[in-house]
User: Fold these one by one.
Assistant:
Number 1:
Amino acid sequence: MNARNILNADLHCHSVVSDGTLTPEELAERARRGGVELWALTDHDEIGGQQRAAAAARAHGMGYLTGTEISVTFAGETVHIVGLGFDDGDERLRKGLQSTRGGRAQRALEMAQGLAQVGIAGAYAGALEFVGNPDLISRTHFARFLVDTGICKDTSEVFRKYLTDGKPGFVPHRWATLKEAVQWISQAGGVAVIAHPARYKFTPNEEFALFTEFKLHGGQAVEVITGSHSAQESLKYADMAREFDLAASRGSDFHSPDESHTDLGILPYLPGELTPVWELLEARIR
Ligand code: AMP
Ligand code: MN
Ligand code: MN
Ligand code: MN
């Protein structure tokens, strides 16, 4: 194990500013309790929680990197690109995120119509009850409503039965392009990271295209250690990081004490040999 990789960094999680259930301050406290030394809050398509998260990290003596997780449409699938260490006052990034959030309200209304057709009434108002940021209504908020009403026993069941491709509450959506997301992050001084690569349903050719185009646009890192990878998947993406000369990131993707099985700070360290993403971002750590 390479000493530079032995850092308890957790560079992926969500607050009430997107689809998490804790505030930035509550997350910072939980991260510190989990032993996190370097933290980033990465709300979906939003950077509204960054100042609070940075202040809370400072109060707990943790290093902080600004963060977000941008939804992208690539080869007909939704891909998530994490951005780390950008300037959160950057206008192009702010405008870009605002534009990509824009379609969510209309999409949510259509999702509710789909659910109404299978007998689930009032899902839009119901989901809104769980929303912390009116600009960011997501499938997760619908999932919490369907669990709350007793229609499903947990959010995984809701996604399986109602909210994934082909199911009644699923509405296809066009998010940002890969190029836009990588450029918004890079031009703001940050590093773009492919989030949880094992979660996409790509053929080997499509995956190769994702990694190739991501590099071409200026992407520099990939999540190797994440709450949504098995040990085997982590090994595969450690190999991919080497093959594509990408730095490696580590993050729990924590959303909620009730829903997430991977808590902040508990993942294995990054494998040696790989370049940790924080090495590219030393000057951006607050
Ligand atoms: P959206 O951005 O509105 O499409 O919502 C995507 C979010 O839904 C993800 O960030 C996850 O938090 C959550 N999600 C996606 N798939 C699942 C699943 N199978 N089980 C639980 N949560 C999921
Ligand atoms: Mn989420
Ligand atoms: Mn994600
Ligand atoms: Mn996430």
Note: The longest strand covers residues 67-74.
Number 2:
Amino acid sequence: MVKIKSFFITTAIDYPSGMPHMGHAYEKICADAIARFKRLRGFDVHFSTGTDEHGMKIERKAKKAGKTPQRFVDEMAVFFRRLCEALDISYDDFIRTTEPRHAKVAQEIFRRIYEKGEIYKGMYDGLYCVECETYYTAKDLVDGKCPVHGNEPEEVSEESYFFQMGKYRDRLVEHIKKHPDFIRPESKRNEILNRLHEPLKDLCVSRTSFDWGIPVPIDKKHVQYVWMDALINYLSTVGWPAGKSGKFWPADIHLIGKDIVWHHTVIWGSILMAAGVALPKTVYVHGFVNIKGEKMSKSRGAVVDPLELADAYGTDPLRYFLISEIPFGEDGDFSVGSLITRNNNELADNLGNLINRVLTFIHNKSAKKVPKPSRYDDLDRQLIQNLKVYTDNVGKLMDDLQLQEALDQLMMLAKFGNEYFQAKEPWGGDPANCLYLGANLVKCIAVMLEPFMPSSAERIWAFLRMPGSVHKQRWESAKELSVKAGHTIQKPAPLFKKFKI
Ligand code: MSP
């Protein structure tokens, strides 16, 4: 029997302390493109996302809203699920840290490390940034402010349990050096290795000054520190230590933003080492979506609502824009103007135009039927060759997580298709080869487009009247000449609207 390969990808789980923003949308779209691609590659995929619902930040927001924390997160989590639906995110699990299935696993990890003797009781006297739920020393601050949020951290003094994270420094360095793919891109790996030159302090893993959290299993006066809770969601989603974890753990990719790399590599890595659980294969760090070169921030009024944008311009144009505009692993800028420009020039005029002209021609001039090809000329042979070359190239780029480059190649194939159509002048002589190969090119593009723009891909599939769903195809089938002569297609409709800037 052939063993089906498994693939497990996660996004960070979002704080539902405010409404979902473009950063959340970007991360989910990128993870979704990878998950969809892997499914087309034949992997059995588990793709998880969710919400991080405990901690001081949430407790305070709930209080401000005059609600219990539970009611507050129940209401807010709905918006994050809605975001996933609106963006066509094909998640397999949406996990919330207030679910009992998660608390059980989070407590089990705590208990294992405690029983190993690596958690001890003490007093924490120091600084804490509630926005990022992170402990800081004065040395970590920039002008006395949190390096991520720019606010002044609070002084905290409370009884806490500590995890002997410090003793894992050498093992972490060794692991990072031995597994070059553990932290990607390389710049982030180097950043962490540099920070690990300094001694590593023990980590405070419980809190007593408030109670919105998972109770510490060995001492109910304490709740687990929110990161000692949230990170463990990656195990709970696969039902560790049983359930699907045998098949899916260790995770293939944790996709996260650049502000939480330390948490996902050093903190998570040492927790897993201490608990005797394998480390994820890759922590992939994407950049930030900025607005006019600056971090999105409510105080500056620079926050864009992804739901509104998907509604106004369409989900697929938004997905297309974010992947094509932002180099994966680096920061990029969002603006409605560039979204519209890319939509009009690249989606409507290039991709949409190709699909529309090929299918309209078949529909109107060939009685809806794909004609039978005859002797191929050089251009025809080039097209057949390109189906193979681009399917292989885009596939390799996606295997290597080069999302932007992969999408760019796909658009190059559409551009080639338009040039081919123009050069063949099907309105002049015999259009048979042009239409037959054109239909197969359109089908090839539909399959490869699926990870990026799933609903447009499915629409193209329907115009072509291909059997089944585009979501269930094999990547390799993209290059096959599987739209046969005599096959009847449907009248196409424009795929993309144009917008005025
Ligand atoms: N709850 C933690 C993560 C816990 S994971 C075990 C958290 N939540 S968050 O809501 O602040 O961020 C969720 C994800 O969105 C993170 O990966 C974060 O880096 C990412 N982004 C937040 N703002 C962003 C941008 N402006 N641009 C791109 N991604 C950004 O951190």
Note: The domain at 336-479 is CATH 1.10.730.10 (Isoleucyl-tRNA Synthetase; Domain 1).
